[in-house]
Specification:
The chain has 551 residues and is an alpha+beta fold. It is built from twelve helices and 24 strands. The chain has four domains: 99 residues, Tumour Suppressor Smad4; 59 residues; 150 residues, Beta-Lactamase; 207 residues, Nucleotide cyclase, GGDEF domain (Alpha-Beta Plaits, 2-Layer Sandwich). The strands form four sheets. Strands 17, 18, 19, 20, 21, 22, 23 and 24 form an eight-stranded mixed beta sheet that branches.
């Protein structure tokens, strides 16, 4: 039978057979399996039996359900899986193989170096038998008291150190699994408040953009954070802590001269305060974690300060890791979006040089290329629609590869037409020549595609499959254009319209360029001069050249 082995520090392993079809796990007494763990939710998870399978589901718990270190919503369990709910570790095993499951043990260290009480008692007994004076006995008793006070303090310190280490170890088991920054910050604040029994608290992180601390999460701060006229004592302490990179701990704010003029001390009845800087391993302050209690309630003492300082160091590392994880994920998303329009090399330049694509656009000189299939509509009428779509996708993919080969920008697909830009957002001294090389490459690629289609698809109709290309160079406005919900990088100007119109009049297999482009490439390109043409919606005739090849 399927069985849970539940392991907890300082407790014997519990063995629970999964006899019911549905079992619930959580802190509440009405759960089938009750887990006394502050990091476990009241109704944390459930296990459902489906035939021979057992499925564990997270019940929207605050700190998550993990199977073999991975946070899950729902997962089929396999024998040997390790489930973690808070600080409780559960092993899913087959009852018949229990004897093969290694026992988990937690070794607790014991304190030594205890004073020899027998020796002191023997001395006292001899002194009484000899009839020593009372004063000498009193001094001996005082010596014993002094020694025991010293050892008691050492034991208390050692116990505190053990508790801090144990608490941080248990906290680390939870926070090291979390890379969602918002979830992590909420968890850290809750853990800190529980550790020192604080009523209120917040975490602020440094914003490199504004150069100020920004509130990220808070608990029970109320209206103080809405006050505009004065920052209040909590924000004042937070700013002071961050600037100095040292802990500020106040046992009683009403008796601290540093903050007697800050009005919120009285207004919010703040009594005891701890504010600790969050400092990374590289000694960089990234924020603060703050706790306070009202006047008349628990005060914070040295032990609380030591605990929170250690916890803050651990928290800073976790926050830095989460921020790094979010940065990597953000860059991956940006890279994925950019790769739809730019070659991998251009993407690297945009990211590495932090070349921003400005909203609203910027003026620049660019060369625009339009490439369109001639007779595609009539071809579609003669062949199967699925094959026609396959041909179109292969064509667009092949043309895009050619654009990226010369580090151009794929602007858009317009049906069976490709629009590309050379010179934005990344420019090169030879962008016009790159555009022409790309156009010549496109013609070669089309011939290769036609041979493949004839062999693979057995379609003679593709013999007449041709493209026409128009190229123009001029000033454009380049940038993100569209609505708030959908933005696309593109260029707009009359230069774009001329390139589009040239492509319209290009005959099958023709590459047409304007004089503006020709003047920039004439040393490298063979052309045939054509008569000036009147283009649609263009007021003046345009001088046109047909590209024949490279010199």
């Amino acid at each position: 039978m399927a069985t849970f082995l539940i392991h907890k520090p300082d407790e014997e392993t519990r063995v629970i057979k999964l006899e019911k079809a549905l079992l619930t796990l959580g802190r509440l007494e009405d759960n089938d399996i009750v887990l006394e763990d502050i990091f476990v939710s009241r109704r944390h998870a459930e296990v459902v039996r489906s035939g021979d399978d057992y499925i564990i589901r997270d019940c929207k718990s605050r700190y998550g359900t993990f199977v073999n270190g991975e946070r899950i919503t729902e997962k089929k369990l396999n024998y040997g899986d390790e489930i973690q709910l808070g600080n409780t570790l559960i092993t899913f095993v087959d009852e018949r193989k229990l004897d093969r499951v290694p026992e988990r043990r937690i070794v607790i260290r014991k304190f030594g170096d205890v004073p020899n009480i027998d020796e002191y008692l023997e001395n006292m007994k001899e002194m009484i038998q000899r009839g020593e004076k009372k004063e000498r006995l009193i001094r001996l008793i005082d010596d014993i008291k002094s020694i025991f006070r010293e050892y008691k303090e050492k034991l208390i310190e050692a116990e505190r150190a053990r508790e801090i280490a144990s608490t941080l170890c248990e906290a680390g088991k939870v926070i090291n699994f979390i890379f969602d920054l918002n979830v992590l910050l909420n968890l850290l604040l809750d853990l800190g408040m529980r550790m020192i029994q604080a009523k209120r608290g917040f975490i602020m992180l440094y914003d490199t953009g504004t150069g100020e601390l920004r509130l990220k999460v808070s608990r029970n701060m109320g209206a103080e954070f809405n006050i505009q006229k004065s920052p209040g004592i909590s924000k004042t302490i937070a700013n002071e802590t961050f600037k100095s990179a040292h802990t500020i701990a106040i046992e009683d704010t009403t008796r601290d001269d540093r903050f007697k003029n800050v009005g919120s001390t009285t207004l919010y009845h703040i009594g005891s305060v701890i504010c600790v800087p969050l400092i990374t391993k590289g000694k960089n302050p990234i924020g603060v974690i703050y706790f306070d209690n009202p006047s008349g309630e628990k005060k914070f003492y040295r032990y609380d300060i030591e605990l929170i300082e250690s916890f803050a160091s651990q928290s800073a590392v976790a926050i830095e890791n989460a921020q790094l994880y979010e940065k990597i994920k953000r860059e991956e998303r940006i890279t994925e979006r950019l790769q739809r329009f730019f070659s991998p090399d251009v993407v690297k330049k945009i990211i590495n040089e932090e070349k921003a694509i400005k909203p609203g656009g910027e003026h620049c000189i660019a060369t625009i290329l339009f490439c369109d299939i001639r007779g595609y509509t009539s071809l579609v009428e003669r062949i199967d629609t699925v094959i026609a779509l396959e041909i179109l996708n292969e064509f667009l993919s092949s043309m895009t590869e050619e654009v990226f080969l010369y580090e151009g920008t794929l602007d858009k697909y317009i049906g069976d037409c490709v629009m590309a830009i050379f010179g934005a957002p990344v420019n090169h001294p030879d962008d016009p020549l790159r555009a022409i090389k790309c156009a010549l490459g496109m013609k070669t690629k089309v011939e290769d595609l036609k041979k493949k289609w004839q062999e693979r698809l057995k379609i003679p109709d593709v013999i007449g499959f041709e493209i026409g290309i128009g190229i123009n160079t001029g000033e454009v406005i380049a940038g993100n254009i569209g609505s708030e919900k959908r933005l696309e990088y593109t260029v707009v100007s009359n230069a774009v319209n001329i390139a589009s119109r040239l492509e319209d009049i290009a005959q099958p297999g023709q590459i047409l360029i304007t004089k503006d482009t020709y003047e920039l490439v004439k040393e490298y390109v063979k052309v045939r001069t054509l008569p000036p043409v009147k283009l649609k919606n263009i007021s003046q005739p345009v001088e046109v050249y047909e590209v024949l090849g490279l010199i």
